[in-house]
Amino acid sequence: MTTITLVQGDITRQRADAIVNAANSSLLGGSGVDGAIHRRGGPAILAECRALRASRYGKGLPTGQAVATTAGELDACWVIHTVGPVYRASGSDPALLASCYRASLRVADELGARSVAFPAISTGVYGWPLDDAARVALRAVRETDTDVEDVRFVLFDERAYEVFAAQNR
After folding, report:
1. Domain CATH code at residue 141
2. For the chain, how are helix, strand and coil distributed in percent, rounded to 5?
3. Distance between CA 109 and CA 53 in Å, rounded?
4. Cα–Cα distance for residue pair 165/135, rounded to 1 Å
5. How many domains does the chain have?
6. Is the dihedral of CA 67, 69, 74, 75 positive or negative?
7. pLDDT-derived band of residue 94, with 50, 70 and 90 as boundaries?
8. Does residue 90 register a pLDDT over 70?
9. Smallest Cα–Cα separation from 18: which of 152, 127, 113, 134?
């Protein structure tokens, strides 16, 4: 049975088997959560992302899919990178956002991860409204058949925490 917990804080400071990165399709780092994970995790993450780009993902990781790398210097075994949809560009399709969570949990299962820390995917520069993103995220995790026992949503600020808490009742 999967337990869902909410934490306000910095995802790069979490201890979990896998930390999910709200990546951009290049996998080469960016702003927000993506940049923070690459900076704190160190060069090993970027090296594996470059190898993925040189092999399976020459055109980048498609929206809604997920792939794992080392966690480098983070307090985790793996980083699972997933590309969330841009709210205005995607036609606001919640299925794409839900796919990020489901695909990340599938990758976690393949790795044998039992604890996973998620950010609020697509709610930063990608512009997804926080209340809708929380509803989609929590529903996707609850409805996904997974061996992951501990799913933690790590919300950066008080507003995000409160919105996810209201949707998690």
Report:
1. 3.40.220.10
2. 40, 20, 40
3. 23
4. 10
5. 1
6. positive
7. very high
8. no
9. 113
- Catalytically active residues, by annotation: 34
pTM over the 0.90 mark: yes
Q: How far apart are CA 92 and CA 55, in angstroms?
A: 30
- 33 lies in which domain range? 3-167
pLDDT in tens, 12-65: 999 999 999 999 999 999 999 999 999 999 999 999 999 999 999 999 999 999
Here the tokens at position 88 are 């205005």
Token pair, residue 141, equals: 């995790």
Six-digit token pair at 127? 């512009």
Joined together, the tokens standing for residue 59 give 């055109």
Judge contact between 108 and 146, C-beta under 8 A.
Answer: yes
